[in-house]
Amino acid sequence: WRRLKPAKVPKRWGLIGGLALLAALMVGGTLLMRRHANPTRSTKVIVIGMDGLDPMLVERFMAQGILPHFQRLKEQGTYQHLATTNPALSPVAWASFATGGNPGRHGLFDFLRRDPNTYLPELALFDVEETKPIVKLGPIQFPPAASRMRTPRRGIPFWTLTSKQRIPTVILRVPMTFPPDEVHGRMLAGLGVPDLRGTQGTFSFYTTEPAEMGKAMGGEIFRVQFGSDTVSTRLVGPRNTLKAGSPDVTVPFTITVHRDNPHATIRLPGESFDVGVGQWSEWKRVEFALNGWTRVPGICRFYLEQVEPHLKLYVSPINFDPRKPAFPISHPPDYAEELSEEIGLYHTVGQAEDTWSLNEGQVSDETFLAQCERVIREREAMLLYELERFERGLFVTVFDTPDRIQHMFWRVEDREHPLYDPALAERHREVFARLYRTMDRILGKVMERVDDDTVLIVLSDHGFSQFRQAVHLNRWLVEEGFMALKPASGDAKPSNEFFANVDWSRTKAYAVGLAGIYVNLKGRERFGIVAPGAEGQAAVAALSERLLTRLIDPTTGKPIVRRVYTREEIYAGPYAEKGPDLVAGFEPGYRASWQTALGGVPDAVMEPNRKRWSGDHCVDPPLVPGVLFVNRPLASAQPRIIDI
């Protein structure tokens, strides 16, 4: 794994991105109105991204006087709403932030993308190129099967331009920077970095409860049994690509419970440590042996929920060890290790806050919030370490945690959410105020280091809205006659993923991902039945009209979709054809379901959202703008994230 390097981006992509950037500069003009006549006076630019920071909450808390540094920044320069992308999803928005291009130019349309040959969803946060062995003798392959990573983001990010001009450039944890770009300075990759299993964060949960062992959304549950007071089990690590079939590599460990003084002793190979009930361990290093001489290190943390009446032990996703990552996660490659020496071990996986363990009920609200606080402290330590030596050039960092906490706790804010509980709301009534005060405190530390020659930009990629009802778009397509199921299965038989039971020979359209609807087009999809041209345009028009008029909430009698966008309307550029044919702009409270994202066809069009993931931004983009604070006046009255 240590030998594997990211694939190089073909030169034609650089040329396309460069031309796109030049055109954008010629057409779009400038966002900032410089305070000084001499443009060389601004020797430093600091950009602080706060993912998901919501204008409604920012303005509420500023009015309450609890965000003094945001208020001061507004008075010094400018505060405005910042138009997001379509769809309003973090990978899409941050890619547009980086490149100044719409999704048709940078090629990212969702967290997921569909393979038109199989119709199946694929993760769009990084690309993997598999190498094939030249010789296969039974289980022996030569050379061994391997993978190369490359970023799915096309176009030229602005830190490449500063780097070419030899301007000192520091980029910390900005989404869609894996594998890391080469910069004239330092970069630590953000959203997109996988865990050691190659996923975006798979947790493990060990319990003696009489529950079925198997997968949970975002994790894996292991049902274990005691021998006396000790459990013997295993940690699951990476696939072993050196062996035929690429089996999972595992590491054995034991859990011994102590009931008198409730805690557990965890024994890993070469290390033993105690964890109390309701406590987190520190980072623990684990090595997974691919063969007798090749070992892949990772780090993880343990959280003991309880020891009786049943054992409940949570293990975080296994992160790359920044001291020796399996794939490069920084530029230069040893920068990740340098940070660990300065601030200690830290989360390296792109989505550090484990929302799915809370969504699946494997950890408590308090446990999740404690994890989030740890992530913020890590990010703040990185920020301050770099600011101490930042003398000139460009510095960009992004805090993801505001997005994660609001996703999981909007049920406290929204009294009409199916999971709203007055007692829970009272217990967590300060959760958003505390979060925003933390962001304000960090902003204050940055502002202490800002002088008259520094441009300071603070922004979010989108805001937030409630998520009360999950919409199963594929079931609606079945009921409207755009999708057909196999006769043997019966039209009422549900499926939750991967288009099980879909009859493609009679299907005109399908939905996949969190934002897109695709026409089953001849020559594009493997089993396409809709002819390009007039027939395809008619299908798009019919879908648009029915989404607006026939997708109705039966409890209110009101439309669910506020606006429908065609691909030609919102995307332009060399990758526009890869985008969905239609994007549904939902009304507040509605969102495409998790099953829709994975190609599921459940048995109803709608169901109440009973997940803790209760807030979202997958609605009509004008409803969820981000925020923009700048310590300068702005030339633009309606700034967009694409303008930054």
Helix amount, in percent? 25-40%
Determine the strand fraction and express it as a percent band: 25-35%
User: Runs with pLDDT <50, length 5+?
Assistant: 1-30, 32-40, 134-144
End-to-end separation in angstroms reads: 36 Å
Strand order of the largest sheet: 2-35-26-1-25-9-10-24
Based on DSSP secondary structure assignment, what is the total number of beta strands?
A: 35
Number of helices: 16
Q: What integer value in Å does the Rg equal?
A: 25 Å
Indicate the mean pLDDT. 89
Name the overall outline. Answer: globular
Structural class: alpha+beta
Largest sheet: 8 strands, mixed
Molecular structure report:
With 644 residues, the chain is of the alpha+beta class. The chain is built from 16 helices and 35 strands. The strands form 9 sheets. Strands 2-35-26-1-25-9-10-24 form an 8-stranded mixed beta sheet, with helices on both faces. The protein has a 6-stranded mixed beta sheet with strand order 12-13-11-22-21-18, with no helix packed on it. Strand 3 (112-114) and strand 4 form a beta hairpin. Helix 10 (401-413) packs antiparallel against helix 12 (431-447). The longest helix is centred in the middle third of the chain and has 23 residues, at 365-387. The two termini are 36 Å apart. Residues 1-30, 32-40 and 134-144 have low confidence and may be disordered.
